[in-house]
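quick q for whoever's on today - can somebody do inverse folding on this one?? i tried earlier but teh output was garbage lol. tokens:
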């Protein structure tokens, strides 16, 4: 090692050590920012009014991801570049977080408000974008040499994995310590670990420390990376042979059986992704020093040529599904994945062809990786923005299919509009509710009245073999005593209450009585079915809700028809043995046990002489 090399390494080491304070401060800031967001969910805003979903979404995205971007940029990016990239990342995170919340229907919003797919996709986009920027900034040009991209990205991947592992290992030790203290009756340490003000800052601070420690040990990271790449590269021949055999078998088995499997396209895209990762593990930085053995070089060429037919078959399957059933958010995301996969497939196939012609081995792969990486970032940003919002595009396509008669009113998926496509779906359903087609309008109104997505299938079953569910016109509830009538405000809400009263049909009519059981001067509606009685109470906003259900203990046998007895007035009321309990303004309703059953069980278990 020359004196210049020694001096350079010493300067780098000194620079790395000087970064520990800002990195720890970033980790600490992230922890307390996340704690502030936690308090806002608990309706205890600390420093900002983040209790509003439109505010919480952008803040949550920035608190989760921006510190990681800054940790990865310190010491690797020029200060000016880091500030610009950090600002752009913060703006994108805020906008995407805001849009993800704003597109949801208000009644569907639940903490933490953001949709789960947003997190992994945005993490992938930030990782790719960051490692397109860092090499270019380090070399001072728009597009850096490929070995720099390879070195920076794969090193960061290993560093990220080790940092996450280090953080997880710390928590395993903390839980172990809490368990040991618990053995001797000391619970305080375990309770401390469960406190958000403790575990959020500790986790983020530990991750920041791990990033710094792995950054200092640069040689160790490169050593681990080399071992990982060698091991991964020798998996390439296995998946290449399996993929080739799969594609070779398709002409004999046909594609029809393949499309009967609902996950065929996803599996083939996953296989393509694995091939791409393993091809890069074998290729590494493309220099002569890292060129793999002959068997791996041929495996790389074969795998690169297999990508086009693999992506092609996946594309045909997706096109078939879209032609049959139209667009859905999942299919739009799959189409974006196919577009990225096709870009890889074309570039890698060209690289394989040039290699077979005796030119530089697989060199076009380098330009393909850089260009497709930028394409993936753009696709992710567009998919989670209003531009290519999958829910909006899907609703537009499904509505167009209904209008042109590609799908009947009976087979149309109203559940998708009601529960799975956010505000744009709700707006489309409202338009269908006033459609000139009475069948469509009736079904849309019924779908709008369903409050719980999990009740939808019972009320409006969907699919070719589905049997139609009951409608409000099918409900038969008789008011008692004779001559009484049910409140119009109650009967008008049969559509909304259909799941609770769907058994009240022709031939099994339910019996109802209006009673003021809670003494508030307003009568409740009690609906007696064959084996239970439901109590419906009118809320301040006019909605009738099932407030309680009366049911006999399960061990009671031979009980008469509850509805018939209720109709004949064979009932009386009794005060509960125990009152409800109100905790912090919330009424906790008691659920009585079954003492009759318990007594019978005790008698059965009693010893006999």
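ok took a stab at it. sequence:
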């Amino acid at each position: 090692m020359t004196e210049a090399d020694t001096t350079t390494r010493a300067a780098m080491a000194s620079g790395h050590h000087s970064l520990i304070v800002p990195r720890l401060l970033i980790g600490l800031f992230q922890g307390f920012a996340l704690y502030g967001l936690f308090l806002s969910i608990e309706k205890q805003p600390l420093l900002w009014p983040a209790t509003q979903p439109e505010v919480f979404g952008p803040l949550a995205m920035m608190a989760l991801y921006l510190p990681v971007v800054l940790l990865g940029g310190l010491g690797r990016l020029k200060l000016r570049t880091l500030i610009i990239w950090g600002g752009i990342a913060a703006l994108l995170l805020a906008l995407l977080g805001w849009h993800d919340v704003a597109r949801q229907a208000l009644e569907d919003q639940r903490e933490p408000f953001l949709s789960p797919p947003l997190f992994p996709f945005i993490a992938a986009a930030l990782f790719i974008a960051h490692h397109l920027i860092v090499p270019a900034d380090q070399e001072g040009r728009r597009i850096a040499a490929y070995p720099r991209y390879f070195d920076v990205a794969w090193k960061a991947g290993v560093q990220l994995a080790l940092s996450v592992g280090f953080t997880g290992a710390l928590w395993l030790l903390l839980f172990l310590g809490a368990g040991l203290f618990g053995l001797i009756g000391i619970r305080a340490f375990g309770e401390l670990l469960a406190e958000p003000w403790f575990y959020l800052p500790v986790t983020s601070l530990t991750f920041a420390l791990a990033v710094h420690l792995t950054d200092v040990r640069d040689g160790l990271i490169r050593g681990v990376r080399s071992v990982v790449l060698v091991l991964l590269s020798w998996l390439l021949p296995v998946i290449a042979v399996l993929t080739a055999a799969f594609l070779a078998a398709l002409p004999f088995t046909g594609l029809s059986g393949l499309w009967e499997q609902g996950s065929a396209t996803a599996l083939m895209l996953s296989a393509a992704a694995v091939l791409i990762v393993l091809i890069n593990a074998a290729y590494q930085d493309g220099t002569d020093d890292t060129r793999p053995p002959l068997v791996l070089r041929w495996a790389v060429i074969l795998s690169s040529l297999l990508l086009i037919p693999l992506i092609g078959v996946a594309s045909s399957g997706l096109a078939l599904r879209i032609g049959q059933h139209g667009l859905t958010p999942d299919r739009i995301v799959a189409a974006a994945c196919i577009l990225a996969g096709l870009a890889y497939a074309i570039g890698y196939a060209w690289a394989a062809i040039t290699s077979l012609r005796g030119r530089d081995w697989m060199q076009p792969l380098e330009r393909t990786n850089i260009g497709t990486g930028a394409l993936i970032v753009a696709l992710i940003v567009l998919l989670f923005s209003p531009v290519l919002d999958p829910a909006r595009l899907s609703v537009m396509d499904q509505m167009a299919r209904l209008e042109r008669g590609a799908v009947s009113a009976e087979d149309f998926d109203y559940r998708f509009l009601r529960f799975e496509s956010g505000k744009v779906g709700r707006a489309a359903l409202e338009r269908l509710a006033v459609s000139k087609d009475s069948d469509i309008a009736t079904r849309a109104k019924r779908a709008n009245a369903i409050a719980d997505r999990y009740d939808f299938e019972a009320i409006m079953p969907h699919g070719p073999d589905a049997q139609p569910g009951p409608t409000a016109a099918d409900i038969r509830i008789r008011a008692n005593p004779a001559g009484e009538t049910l409140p119009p405000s109650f009967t008008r809400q049969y559509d909304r209450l259909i799941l609770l009263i769907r058994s009240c049909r022709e031939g099994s009519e339910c019996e109802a009585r209006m009673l003021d059981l809670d003494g508030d001067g307003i009568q409740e509606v009690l609906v007696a079915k064959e084996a239970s009685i439901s109590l419906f109470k009118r809320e301040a906003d006019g909605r009738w809700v099932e407030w309680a259900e009366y049911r006999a203990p399960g061990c009671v046998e031979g009980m008469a028809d509850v509805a018939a007895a209720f109709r004949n007035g064979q009932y009386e009321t009794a005060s509960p043995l125990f009152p409800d309990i109100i905790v912090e303004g919330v009424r906790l309703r008691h659920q009585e046990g079954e003492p009759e059953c318990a007594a019978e069980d005790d008698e059965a278990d009693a010893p006999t002489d």
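fwiw The chain is about 65% helix and 5% strand. also The beta strands are 477-480, 510-515, 524-528, 532-538, 544-551, 581-583, 586-588. so keep that in mind when u check it
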